[in-house]
Amino acid sequence: MNLLFEIGVEEIPARFIPLALNQLKENSQKIFSEFRIEIEELKTYATPRRLALKAKVSEEQAEDQKLIWGPPAYVAFDEEGNPKESAYAFSKAQGVDISQLEIKPKGKGNYVCAVVREKGKKTEEVLPDLLKELFFSISFPKMMRWGMGNIKFVRPVRWILAFYKDKLISFEIDGIKTVGVTYGHRFLFEKPIYISIEDYEKTLESAFVIVDHNKRKK
User: Fold this and answer.
1) Mean of the pLDDT values across residues 24-53?
2) Which of 75, 93, 195, 203 is most buried per CB count within 10 Å?
């Protein structure tokens, strides 16, 4: 596992936790796919004061391919197939060689098109936007605002932990900046806890929190 994301909150009503876990898993799969990041492993967690996921994700986005439509074929090429000025202008605008232009049917005619390939970014570059979108994708039957903030969540958010390869992913949501610590049992272990992705469950258990909801239920 190389990614850890945790939302720390005040106590969530127990009846909302199964819903949140389902959303966290399903929305993660959807949003990572939209960002072209492959998930190889995924595990979700919940306690009354946190929602979290650990995952093993690809180190960069998959290449993106887009089909861009250009002018009608008769405008871009003459009868002998030689490119005209509009073909050169279109290929230059799309950053492709004139020889890479294709002619495909569209509607009632044939049009020039180009396949534009965009190299993927490193995963750590897109994680701030990706994790923000994941945060806002989680909803509850009852939401609330608190303090002077503008966001809504099931209960006030107190911390956001975001690690990739045990390095902090820096971003903020409504003034709440990501941190490299988590918290144990509210009364039995009040100090912040520095953790690693690998030892997440074990470290929290030493702070009197069984973060795996299935294990806690047993």
Assistant:
1) 95
2) 195
